[in-house]
Every structure is written in structure tokens, then in C-alpha cells.
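Chain A, query sequence.
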Amino acid sequence: MLAFAVGALIFYRWWRNERDLNNMKWKVHFLDLDFNFRRHKRKATLGSKHGDNHVDRDSVHSDGSDAVGMASSEHPSVESGLDGSVAFHQYTTIAKYKENIVAVKKIWKQRIQTDRKLMKHIKEIMMLKHSNLTTFVGICIESPNIVILWEYCNKGSLSDILDNSDMKLDSMFQFSIAIDICSGLEYLHMSSLKYHGNLTSSNCLIDSRWVCKLTDFGLRPIRKGEKDTSNQVSEDDRCEKLFWLAPELLRTYQSEKRFTPTQQGDVFAVGIILKEILCLTKPYAEEVRLTPKDIIKRVAHPTDQLMRPTVVETQDEYVSLRLPFVKMIHSCWAEDPQCRPTIRRVLKRLNRLNPYRSTSMLDNMLMMMERYSNHLEELVADRTAQLEEEKRKTDALLYSMLPQKVADNLKTGNLVQAEAFESVTIYFSDVVSFTDLASESTPMEIVDLLNTLYTLFDDTIKNFDVYKVETIGDAYMMASGVPIQNGDQHVMEMADASLSLLKAVLSYVIPHRPERQLKIRIGIHTGPVVAGVVGQTMPRYCSGIHTGPVVAGVVGQTMPRYCLFGDTVNTASRMESNGMPLKIHLSGSSAALLKKNPLYDVVERGKVEIKGKGRLCTFWLMGKTGLFKVPTDSQNTSVASDHKEPETVFHGDVTPSIANSPTSDTTAAGSAAIH
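Chain A, predicted structure.
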């Protein structure tokens, strides 16, 4: 009876093992995989909301329906063809199987022989249960759609997290991930598999609870004889996948195109991954001068020194732990496999170095949230400062194009109403004999000349209450008393600015003609104007020198410009065109206001024939006490002009063509007066 009982027990155990071995729960039918589950889910949602079956084709994603955090670049979208075929990608494809999302790995083989050895190996894989290992779901052996199904982790891989610049792992997560990897690998080394064989940072997945799990282990009998797909990727990508391979295995792979995994090889891969976690970079990110092919060659065949990743020195709160941590990493990638520690020793060393082992996960999470909160406040303050700086730059650019008062109204979306100003001083100037100078110079030399000259002008007038209205060709136009009125100060401000500009011109050296003295004519007039904004994009403010009434305003909705209208603008242009080189020509109204101040030296020129105005009595501004006095060699107060009077007269609301004017030196100023 005892012998019978023992025999029955042995038979029962054999029968149970055979039953488990022949259990086909791991077998998956390809049609049971739903690769378009995201589209179906959206279709149902849209149907319930809108009552139709319209589906957005771009709504198919593959980063997990409940993923919170980073979207993995390892999970591109997948579409099913009209014939039911599936486009498998280089990275992980996902599908829905029995209400669960799974990762689908393509096996490039035509068929798989399901013999006893394979079923025994699959049984061993299915029996592996550990919190740091992804669950093996099953295999589809239907040719040509041979795929392996694994548990899906929606945070992506460790490689994805390291590539994400917005994801900053603190020391707690670094230690947690490192310990999870070593724990999962220790379980594999103690199991019947004995090794992982394909350990890389891409095969270390992060689930929704931030637990790191190893995947793609075992199943070498299935992968044996797999079609080589290396020609579908670049040589650099192919070599980068070998960064985690131990030197002894790398040499075998290069010669035989295959290798037998070892536990020492897994430990080498762990050392590379720990370096990635510590430095938050790719394995050989510091070797920018070497190609992946050169790196692999030096690792497999070292010369004077070993080729290993560079551990960059950084300063953090646990700087005292870096030295033993780095020492442990170096021991993991020793050249001699027998000198490498076992994974159990590595795990024990990590647990001893872990500064968070005495605190609970809840405490660690609270500490982390507090640090992130402080960091967020600093980040918000920094971004606010950057925003203010960019706003300041934008305002400075806008204020350089428009008066501040007008620009502020345009920024708020308000329309700038045209305004009438009773007394404004307008300034015009141009370069004498500019046409002759341009004919003797190259276009680049002319651009350089005008750029340096107007930069000098712009820097000079910053000290005065004047507004630069326009520059067209060699013409320069300013106004004072608009859009912000300043009483009767506009005449004196413009006079001071004109004298300062004339003084600057006398010391100005033409870049490509240093032996030639640059000469300008200046005309000033005071009178009423009407001002307004023309357009809403790139607004400009225009005027000329003359004292009198003008109209200024904004005109148009596109390319807005701040323009001055009125006879005052035309008269100021005439003062310039009928002036003389290196002289400041004043109209009667401007001279009358300046004579009230004894500091200004105003000399009567006499009556001059002004086209459209008849004979007008004009004046020269010869200087100001304490500021500048016009040189005596240019103090010719003759009424005669040294150039031909332009035939084109500008009346504020007329825009003549520059090309139609007979005299190039004066048409630019006239055109500026119109704008």
C-alpha cells in the first residue's frame, strides 16, 4: 500500500506537470488584438455626444489612455490597413487584449515550432512573478503575424525619461529606480532563466506608480533564427543598441553575429544603466567627437586604456555618496567578467547607500512635493522676470517706431484720434550732393554711410525733446511739440537739436571717403499741424522742421504710421530745400520765437522766393551761447541758393514720386514731409 501511494503521487505530479505544460493559455489569436482601441473609444464618445459616427483619424495615440506625465517617444501610433495588416514600428506598438493594454513585440520569423522545449520555456516565463518584472501575457504564433505580448507601462521607458528635458529625476527617484532594476535582475538570476540577456535602459519600463520593471527577458528559443532587420535602421542606431553589451559578448557578436548571455554581462549592463541614472544622460553622451561605431570598436578591442562612459562630476545634496556610488559603477563594468560583483552584492550596496531607506515613501513624496513647490515658485519668478525683460524689449522697439503715447493706445486696441496742434516745430535735413556721392560709391558703401550717419543723429537727439519722424534716403525729419505738447519749448528744443546735429556732422568722417567733408542742409519752421496714426501695423510718425500749425494722426489699418498734415510740413521742407550747406535755415515764425531768448544768435537772411509761398523773409540760426556756434567759414548769409529749386511742391495730402523730381537731393525730404 505504501509503494502504491508513492507511485500514485509520482504519477499525479507527472500528470499535473504534463497538463500544465500542454496548457495553451499563452496562445493568442491575432484577431483578438485591437490596435485601434483608441479610435474606437473616441468613436463611442463622439457618438454619444454628437449622435454620429465621425471619427478623427488623428485621435489615435499610443501613450496609454491613463498616462499622466510624459508621453513616451517609444510608442508611436499604429494604424490597421484595409486588409487587416498592421504596420509594426521600430519601437513598441500597443494594442488592447482582453480589456487590457499590452505591448506588442514583433518577431521577424515565418513560423515557430511549438515543441516540448518551447512550451517548457514559456511555462517558466509565465511562472515568473515579481513586482519589478513586467508580466508575460502571451504569444501569437500565426504566420506572418508572430508577436509577443507584454504588460504595458504607460510612463514609458527609462530611456524616454532621460531624453525628456522637462522630466528632472531627484535623488529619491534615482535610488528607487536603481534598486528596482537590481531587484528585478536578482530575481531573474535566481530563477530558472539565470539571466536577462537583453538589458538596456529601453527595457526598463516605468508604470503609473513609478515602479521600474524589466521587460523583454527570456524567450531566446523564439528569437533564435529571427530575420536580421538591421538594414532597416542606420549604422549609428544599430551601434547605439550595443552600448550595454559587455566587451566579451560584444567580441563574440561581432565575429559570429550571436552571443550567449551571462550574468556577468547583465551586471555590465547594470553599470551602464546606473551611469545613465546618475548623470541623467545617454551612456556615451560626453563622447561627442566619437561616432557610435568608434565607441563600440574601442570597447570591444581596448588599447592603452578601457573605453567606458564618463561620469560627470556634479554637486548635489548627497555629494558624499557619489564617490562610493561611482566606484560601484566602475566595478560593474570591469573588463574581466570574474572581477565584476554579483547583482546581489550590487543591490546590497545600493541599499546601504540609499539615504531614504529609513523614511517611508509617503514622507519622501511629501518632501519631494515641497521641493517641487519651492522650485516652482523660483521657476515662476524666473519666467516672470524673463517675460518682463521681453516686454521691455518689445516696448523699446515699439517706442522707437512710434511716440509712446500713440504706441500705448495702439497696444490697448484703442483707435488714435487725429489731433490738431496750434504750434509745432518741424525739422528737415538732407545731404548735399548726395546724388554725386551715390554715383561714386557702391550700394554697400551708401548703406554703411547712411547707417553710421543716422545712428549718430539718433544718439544725438536723445538728449532733446524731439521725435524722429522719418528717414527716406538721405532725408532726416524730426518734430517737437507733438504728440506731447511742450508749450513754446519746441522751438528751442529743435534749435538745440539742430545745432548739436550740425556740430556732430562737422566731425563726422565718411567711412569710404575720409578726405571728403559731409555737408547737410537744415530747415526749420514752426506752425500748426494735424497729427494722426495711419494703419495699425508698423505705425510711423512723420513731420518736418518749420514752426506753424499742422495736423497729425493715424491713417489706415495696415502698416500704421503717425503722420503730420498741413502747410507747416511743406513750409519746413521748403526751408530745407532753399537752405545752404552746413547752415540752419529758419522761417519767420521760428525765428520770432527764438529771438525771445537772447542766447540764440539769429541772423536775417533776407527775402527768398519760396515756391508756392512767394517771397518770404527767412533767417539763419548761427549758434547758441554755451552750446555751439556755426563756423565762420560757413557763415554766408547770401540769399542765393547753391542748388536748383525743386519743381515738386508737397501740400500735405499729396504724395509725389521721388523718381519724377528733377533734383534727387531735395525729393527725399519732400517725400518725408508727406508721410
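Residues 622 and 630 are 5 Å apart (CA to CA). The radius of gyration is 42 Å.
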